[in-house]
Every structure is written in structure tokens, then in C-alpha cells.
Design goal:
- The chain is an all-beta fold and 156 residues long.
- The protein has one domain.
- The chain has no helices and 15 strands.
- The strands form four sheets. The chain has a four-stranded antiparallel beta sheet, with no helix packed on it. Strands 2-3-6-7 form a four-stranded antiparallel beta sheet, with no helix packed on it.
- A hairpin with a 5-residue loop joins β2 and β3.
- It is globular, with a radius of gyration of 16 Å.
Length: 156
């Protein structure tokens, strides 16, 4: 299975170590929190599955996605979910440029990454919902080839 343009539940990417992985986001759900009963979402973790035959790698869930951009730069991100009007959920990625994993570089609605074959890809997550109370919904990616690198991503 290779990355294909359009909507997809998963995408293939290269990790900093050069290992090959497939990732998806866990389902997103809402919860009532605080004394005022404000409805919020729980940030989804990434579910990582190694490519077949890679020794020393195991399927796992993690808040972090550690990936390479097409020019080989090491980045990591976390996905954040945001509850809006009508219980519709939107998503952003908080990006960290390695090795500084304590201070976010920027937050955006997109993710630029290197696929298994080294090609450049671009992903966003379309809004989902409304989400009925007590239920969760799957998160999809919009994938396109030839990532759209921005000036902020090309730091020296």
C-alpha cells in the first residue's frame, strides 16, 4: 500500500531513524469538563505500524509523530483537536524541529513529510462531526503529493 492522493485513514512516512512506518490518528471523541460543563475534545494519538520485516520496531500508540521532510530535516509533531460550533472538531499540528522537543516551532493545519519512497507529501485533517455525546469518530487525512513547503519550514 502506497500513499494515494485524496482522503485516507493512513499514510506511509519515514522516521528519523530511516525506518518505514504507516500512521493513522486514533478516533476522536468529546468530553464534558469543568464546572460549567464545557464540551472539549481529547487530542488523538498517532497509531504507528512498522513496515513488514523491520527488526526492532513494534506497533504502538504515541502522541508524537517523528518524521523526515523531503529534504531530510528531522521534525516531530503532535495533533491537537478543537471543538467548534455545533460540536464539529477541527485539527492542528504542533511542530517541533529536532533536537528541540521542548519548544514548539509553529502550529499549522498541515503536515509535510517524506514517504517510504522518499517522495514529498502533504497532509491535512478535514473537520469531523458533529460528534454525538459518548461516541467517537474516525479521523481522515487529505493527502497530496509534492508537499507545499513554506518559508518557515526552511530554517537554517
Amino acid at each position: 500500500m502506497a500513499n494515494n492522493p485524496g482522503k485516507s485513514a493512513t499514510f506511509q512516512y519515514r522516521h528519523w531513524a530511516g525506518t518505514l512506518w504507516t500512521a493513522r490518528l486514533q478516533n476522536v471523541s468529546t468530553q464534558i469538563s469543568g464546572p460549567l460543563g464545557v464540551k472539549t475534545t481529547i487530542d488523538p494519538d498517532f497509531h504507528h505500524v512498522p513496515a513488514p520485516g523491520q527488526a526492532g520496531t513494534v506497533e504502538h500508540d504515541d502522541a508524537w509523530l517523528q518524521y523526515l521532510t523531503s529534504d531530510g530535516v528531522h521534525w516531530a509533531c503532535k495533533c491537537h483537536s478543537h471543538t467548534g460550533d455545533g460540536n464539529v472538531v477541527s485539527f492542528t499540528f504542533e511542530h517541533f524541529r529536532a533536537p528541540d522537543m521542548d519548544n514548539a516551532d509553529h502550529e499549522s493545519s498541515d503536515l509535510n513529510f517524506q514517504a517510504w519512497d522518499g517522495s514529498s507529501w502533504y497532509a491535512t485533517c478535514p473537520n469531523v462531526g458533529p460528534i454525538p455525546d459518548g461516541q467517537s469518530v474516525a479521523v481522515l487525512f487529505n493527502l497530496s503529493k509534492d508537499a507545499k513547503f513554506l518559508a518557515k519550514d526552511a530554517k537554517a
